[in-house]
Write a structure and sequence with these properties.
single chain; 106 residues; mainly alpha; flat
Length: 106
C-alpha cells in the first residue's frame, strides 16, 4: 500500500511541476483555464469532504486548515491557484475572480 501512495505522490508532483511550467511559459493562456479547473476541484473536494468525521463543527479554523494542508493534492491546487492569480497578465485576474466568486460548486 505504501508503494501505491508513493507512486501517487510522484504522479501528483509531476503534474504539479508541469502545470507550473505551463504558467511560467504561457501564463496568459493557461491561467484562466487552470484557475477555473483548480477552483472547481477545490470546491468539489470541500463539498465532498465537509461531513467527514475528521472535520467536526467544534474545530477551530486553524485546526481545519491544518488538516486540509496535510494533503499534497490540496497544497498543489492552492499553489496552482495562487500562481494563476499572480501571473504577469493582469487581465486574467478578472476571469480568476469571476471563477472564484461566480462558480457554483456541486
Amino acid at each position: 500500500m505504501a508503494v501505491i501512495e508513493e507512486d501517487i505522490e510522484l504522479i501528483l508532483n509531476e503534474i504539479h511541476s508541469t502545470f507550473l511550467l505551463y504558467l511560467e511559459g504561457c501564463g496568459e493562456i493557461w491561467s484562466p483555464i487552470l484557475s477555473t479547473w483548480a477552483l472547481h476541484l477545490l470546491g468539489h473536494l470541500s463539498t465532498r469532504n465537509a461531513n467527514l468525521p475528521l472535520i467536526t463543527r467544534h474545530q477551530s479554523v486553524n485546526e481545519i486548515i491544518t488538516i486540509w494542508m496535510g494533503s499534497k493534492a490540496i497544497q498543489s491546487l492552492l499553489t496552482l491557484t495562487s500562481r494563476c492569480l499572480t501571473c504577469n497578465n493582469h487581465s486574467n485576474t478578472d476571469s480568476f475572480i469571476t471563477a472564484l466568486l461566480g462558480k457554483r460548486f456541486e
